[in-house]
Amino acid sequence: MRPQSVDEYVGQEHILGEGKPLRKMLLAGQCHSMVLWGPPGTGKTTLAQLIAQYSDANVIQLSAVTSGVKEVRAAMDKATQDARYQQRTILFIDEIHRFNKSQQDAFLPFVEDGTVTLIGATTENPSFELNKALLSRVRVYILQSLSEQALAGLLNRALSDTEKGLGELTLSLQEDAQAALLVACAGDARRLLFYLELAADFAENNVISLSDVESAVGQKIAAYDKQGDAFYDLISAFHKSVRGSDPDAALYWYARILNGGGDALYVARRLLAIASEDIGNADPRAMQLSLNAWDTFHRVGPAEGERAIAQAAVYCALAAKSNAVYKAFNEAKAMVAKAPDYPVPNHLRNAPTSLMKEQGFGKGYRYAHDEPNAFAAGECYLPPELVQTRFYQPNERGLEKALKAKRDFLDELNRGSTNKRC
Ligand SMILES: Nc1ncnc2c1ncn2[C@@H]1O[C@H](COP(=O)(O)OP(=O)(O)OP(=O)(O)O)[C@@H](O)[C@H]1O
So what's the ipTM on this one? Predict the structure, then answer.
């Protein structure tokens, strides 16, 4: 049932509707590098194929899961040869977020010089997963979960198409059965077609009933739309439960997210953010454990991996909390945004050449290791205009207590120093 023309492609009106940029590009037979970001089964691969078809380009398809740098190089060689004969090449990479940095670097120059037009598909936020250099050379289009209206159109086509669909079976679909199908597939067209085909197998007398759909789906119907508000409410409740040090609530909201079809890795990513935003140096192990849980998920798969993320969630919920780094870093960024770019003080400048030394660069720099406590008491590292600035105000919880004690001790040394620069 994969659409053969843009008219068979349902939904995604925000990018493909009449007059929208992608539709214009498609119909003009042009193509630029892009990343299609959206939930599974919303038409990323299909759209890439349509673009290739309309622009009359060769398509090289690589999977980030099975292709390495070697395959990328071979593909680029072929594209370079074809470009000599004015033959365009589209490099389609499914699950592009799984490509590591060196794999991404291998095709970057060819995207840059136009030898290939890259179309990447991903279910993950590209700003987290792609190299900055690559991101700056592609346009990101967000595909949305398909609406029930769009899916209903697809359903009708699948039921009536005698060539590629189930048309020859002359099936009818009862109203409640259709409603259940549309909910069960949660905006995913592939799932919809899969459930429909299964339900058709169960149907008696050419009628698909609600119980046929339930047999096909075989589980409780997911209650929320992954892209909708309900999902963000659940993840927000999860974040607040961990921040609020309630491990039971954290587990409950996590389980709700999974039950609704949510991605455990989304929770893992959020947990990592919590470890830095809400726990910080009060317990730096929280960040390690969150990262380990994420990694574990990739290594052992969902069944065990989901539990590893639960373990990290419980740890983070009960870990000591500090937002001191979070606040300090925000203040530093705000300061940099509003203050002028003060020059680096001479004593902190690098002086690799004798000319620079003559200019006074590096002059008077004190090598901390040569001084008591490996600390150059009275020394200054901020621009003179900012010497009084204190971004980091450690609290006394968890391991941050030790950092606070250390800072108080160093302050004392600074105050008692007879060698003050500022
Ligand atoms: N927008 C759409 N319009 C019509 N059919 C669609 C659409 N999206 C998906 N389909 C149907 O679902 C099938 C799977 O879609 P496709 O492979 O394009 O999804 P995808 O977004 O690339 O999914 P995944 O992220 O899981 O790879 C297609 O063969 C097609 O039949």
Answer: 0.95
